[in-house]
Amino acid sequence: MFTGIITGVGRIAAVHDLGSSLDHGKRLTIEAPAGYLDDVRLGDSIALNGACMTVTTLSPESRQFTIDISAESLDKTAGLDRPGPINLEKALRAHDRLGGHIVSGHVDGIGRVTHFAEVGESWELRILAPRELGKYLAYKGSITVNGASLTVNRIQDQPEGCEVSINLIPHTVQNTALGALHENAPVNLEIDLIARYVERMLGAAVPTPSSKETA
Q: What pTM, to 2 d.p., does this model score?
């Protein structure tokens, strides 16, 4: 589990194919900030742009670690197939503060940036989410964008999807990889976990007891 509070900005330094077909995944070499890997161990979970991955090799001296990502995960995420800046978050410990919201590290869909510009001292980020995710998005609700826990300020349902507007304070822009976003950039989205369970509870069919069961 994660909180959506980015703890470091790393960089995908290298991408290596794990095979020659489209069914094969890739091995990513990630460069982390100084000291970031001091308490990381092999097999630990680290979210990369919101996608939970497992550390497969570790070299704190060179500030690098690797993860293996399957073809399925590559198909369902954005920004994990090429070098570039990336948001990092280590898995939540039981005694940690829950500064954002409960995040599973499972990407629910890929959104597209429709607008990203300064407004006063902050930045307005607008993202078009897939239409099937629109029912989970609410005013002042939570959404995870490339691993960062953010608050929805406005929603607008459209034929092609649901556009959400988010305000980014300067600290968020400066201390995450979100500052590198641009119009039409794809982003990983994870909906609020509680919304997912609410939908299941409301939509689950309750079987009606038969006459034999009630006799």
A: 0.91
